[in-house]
Description:
Keywords: Coiled coil. The protein has helices at 14-54, 63-76, 79-85; strands at 2-4, 7-9, 90-91, 97-98. By secondary structure, it is mostly helical.
Amino acid sequence: MNxxxxxFINSGGKIMALSNLEKQQARLxxxxxxxxxxxxxxxxxxxxxxxxxxxLDYSDFxxxxxxxxxxxxxxQISSDxxxxxxxxxxxxxxxxxxxxxxxx
Length: 104
């Protein structure tokens, strides 16, 4: 066995491979945490925008009301709708094009 950078390496390299796996696992955990934090940020921002644009009062919200509104909005919006809103020139039913109004 040789001592390299404070780690023992046996002839098969098993300990070295374990070290690399531990490093990859740590990077994966860090990335998963970053993704979780970004999702939470999006949820907070989306909630603020919905409340602000609908002129709702925070005192009106209960757990049940939040769940009800979430279900209502969720049934009205899908991922496909969001894809269409990113396209700036969606044709309307009458053949004209609406540049500013996303279609949900």
